[in-house]
User: Which sequence fits this backbone?
C-alpha cells in the first residue's frame, strides 16, 4: 500500500510538471510571437519562424503526454 501511494505521488508530480511545461511553452510562444511582430530584419524574422515551429512541436509533445495521462486543466488557448 505504501508503494502504491508513492507511485501515485510520483504520477501526480509528473502530471504537475507536464502542466507546468505546457504553461511555460505557451508563454514562450506568446513572447516569440511578439518578437516576430516587431522584427524587421529578414534573418530575425526567419529565426522567429523556426523558434515558433519548435515551440509548437514542444507544445504538442507535452499536450500529448497530458492527454495520455488523462490530465485536464484550464489552459489559455494559444493562437
Assistant:
Amino acid at each position: 500500500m505504501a508503494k502504491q501511494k508513492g507511485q501515485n505521488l510520483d504520477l501526480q508530480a509528473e502530471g504537475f510538471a507536464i502542466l507546468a511545461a505546457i504553461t511555460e511553452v505557451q508563454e514562450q510562444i506568446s513572447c516569440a510571437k511578439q518578437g516576430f511582430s516587431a522584427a524587421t530584419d529578414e534573418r530575425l524574422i526567419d529565426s522567429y519562424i523556426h523558434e515558433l515551429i519548435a515551440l509548437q512541436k514542444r507544445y504538442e509533445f507535452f499536450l500529448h503526454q497530458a492527454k495520455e495521462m488523462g490530465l485536464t486543466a484550464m489552459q489559455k488557448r494559444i493562437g
About this structure: Residues 2-38 form the longest helix (37 residues). The mean pLDDT is 88.
